[in-house]
Amino acid sequence: MKQDYVTVDFKSKYGEFSIKLYGRFTCIIGLESGEGKSKLLDDLLNKQHIKETSITNDRNLPYEILSNAPNDVRNYAKNTILIMDEVSTSEGAKVLDMCKVDMYFIMICRSMPIKNTYPICGIYHLSTVGEWYAVEPHKLKLYQENLPVDYIVTEAEDYHSEHELVSKYFPNVISAHGRDKVTKGIRKAWGNILVFADLCNIGKAYQHWLAIQERQRNVYFYDYQSFEQLLYVSPLVQQRCGEIYLSSFSCNTLETYYNMLLEQVTNGTELEYHHGEHLAEPYLDKTNFNKIFDSEVGRALIPLLSDSNSSSFNAVEYLQNKAGDKFKYFTQLQIDNCQTQEDCDELLQSLRWLD
Amino acid sequence: MLDIIWGRENVPKELVPKVIMDSREYFNYYKTEAWFQDEFVKEVMLAIDKATVYAGEAIINYEGKCVSPTVLSTGCKCLCCIHFFKDNIFYGGQLGNNCLPLLIKLAATRDITIILEHFADFTDDDLAKGLIRVNGTVVDNFDDYGDTFSDWCVTTESDDYETRLRNCGL
Q1: Beta-carbon pairs below 8 A across chains A and B
Q2: Which among A124, A218, A243, B88 is least surrounded, fewest beta carbons within 10 Å?
Q3: Maximum alpha-carbon separation in chain B
Q4: A242 exposed, middle or buried (CB, 10 Å; 0-12, 13-18, 19+)?
Q5: Which residue in A157, A196, A201 sits closest to A332, CA to CA?
Q6: Chain B residues close to A214, C-beta within 8 Å
Q7: Which residue of B has its CA nearest to A110?
Q8: Helix orientation angle between B39-49 and B74-84, rounded to the nearest 10 degrees
Q9: In this complex, do A33 and B63 lie within 8 Å of one another by their Cβ atoms?
Q10: Nearest CA to B165 among B122, B127, B115?
Q11: What is the pLDDT of residue A336?
Q12: Chain A positions in Cβ-Cβ contact with residue B91 (cut-off 8 Å)
């Protein structure tokens, strides 16, 4: 697996910084007004001719600096780096056209343009101190290994993808039923909350999640690009299916990239994976725990999930085994309220009314 | 009251002519000397850009240098436009989080409508004032406000979103 990036170096009279372009869309955002976004673009746009600024990249790709989205993005050569300010004020149609071309867009903005996917690694924050610029990576608080967790919230639907896998090992797992509903899922949980969301497709939710973390200090996001990345790099998949050598730039988005990698490499095998469908049995076999999580991406979960696996009562698994097909009649709230076997037995009693 | 329209594709057709998406040139073109004698404008300039009025349209910036008002921040310009152009609907994507308390202060005096396409982080105190409305419903807490944003984000994933966006004229 090769996650490619282009390194772009900016030098101006007021500072130097580098950013990495992991996907087609990279954002340099400023949450506050007066942070210097327009000034940065003005410096880049107007000071090149007097050699006060320079922009270079490690692949010698052409670049253009624009104050808005271009009238016709097809006028630029493939793989051009377009640096733009206030893209969201441009006509929606022009912004949509940007999604359909093979270029790199660096957007200096506050409102991330619509219908574009942004990986977390493609979000930077701009700030200025006096006249000096500083650009830093994203500010989302990520999970630290060995931090105790009370609840896990997954972007995935009930008993699909990461929800299906993690529910095998952790008792309190809530499905948010979609990235844009993660904040609603967080509200159903308490204590230390760990969120599994595809950070390679974070989109507009990023600023909302920052605001949640500002108010609730105990919400953390797991540091992975996607669930598909977790599975693809796992020893289970690597040993049984091998790997594919493919540049991440061959796909429009990182989400598509990891999904394609996993689906292609497992195609026709016992580990065959399809996005949105139930996981193949080997992924859910507890004897494969280390083979799934013992990778650079999954290792931080081992202490959390193996502790839960060995010592905590898994209400979900107990109810599934006992209720069988009738498991589907339980609401998420009923399942969440079952902490012990006694709670589960009491809930199972309610099923006798269905007989 | 502050009426928020999530997404430009949800602006009613009859209101589209009133929408100003980019405040920067609008401010630069329409500003007058009288604007800079207005107390609200002075408050905005000081709060957002640490700038004060020297005389006429001459501004003293945070470094004590005399500058043109055209170099004021976009958020500052947007707030000024909202203040003076009472019949227009402005794009709130140019307002940073530090502009929002001033926007609420304006909304306490008259009805304002803005379009938002990002999560504008209003403080809990400002939300509690009950001055923010989405789709005609007052939202006065972070959770309810956040839900209106999340619900809109879900609609941007629908199959017809692109068509609605292309057809909205904005």
Answers
A1: 122
A2: A243
A3: 54
A4: exposed
A5: A157
A6: 121
A7: B93
A8: 160
A9: no
A10: B115
A11: 77
A12: 88-89
Query: Is the CB of A180 less than 8 angstroms away from the CB of B150?
Result: yes
* A341 contact partners, CB below 8 Å, separation of at least 6: A313, A318
- CA A154 remoteness from chain centre: 11
Contact A74, A82 (CB under 8 A): no
* Interchain proximity B119–A30, CB inside 8 Å: no
Quickly state the pLDDT bin for A93 (edges 50, 70, 90). confident
A305: enclosing H helix or E strand: helix A302-311
State pLDDT tens for residues A191-219.
Answer: 899 999 999 988 889 999 999 999 988 99
CB A174 within 8 A of CB A154: yes
Chain B positions touching A180 (Cβ under 8 A) are: 150-151, 153-154, 157
Judged against a pLDDT cut of 80, whether residue A102 lies above it is answered with yes
Cα B104 to Cα B112: distance, rounded to the nearest angstrom:
9
Tokens standing for A52? Answer: 């006060």
Predicted confidence (pLDDT) per residue in A243-300, tens digit: 888 888 888 788 889 999 999 999 999 999 998 889 999 999 999 999 999 999 999 9
Mean pLDDT (chain B, rounded): 95
Angle between helices A205-215 and B142-155 (to 10 degrees): 160
Q: How large is the average pLDDT for residues A175-182?
A: 92
DSSP H stretches of helix in A160-295: 161-166, 182-187, 205-215, 227-232, 235-241, 254-266, 281-284, 289-293
pTM, full prediction: 0.87
For A310, other C-beta atoms within 10 Å of its C-beta total 8
Q: Looking at the complex, report in whole angstroms how far the Cα of residue A209 sits from the nearest Cα belonging to chain B.
A: 9
Cβ proximity of A57 and A6 under 8 Å: yes
Q: Which chain A residue has its CA at the smallest distance from B117's CA? A: A111
Whether B117 and A187 lie within 8 Å, measured CB to CB: no
The three-state secondary structure class of A226 is coil
Residues of B in contact with A31 (CB under 8 A): 96-97, 121
> Nearest Cα to A317, choosing from A351, A341, A334, A291?
A341
pLDDT of residue A354: 60
Candidates A31, A33, A43, partner chain B, best to mutate (most B CBs within 10 A) = A33
Bridge partner residues of B66 (DSSP): B60
Across the interface, whether the CB atoms of A114 and B156 are under 8 A apart is answered yes
Give the pLDDT of residue A112. Answer: 75
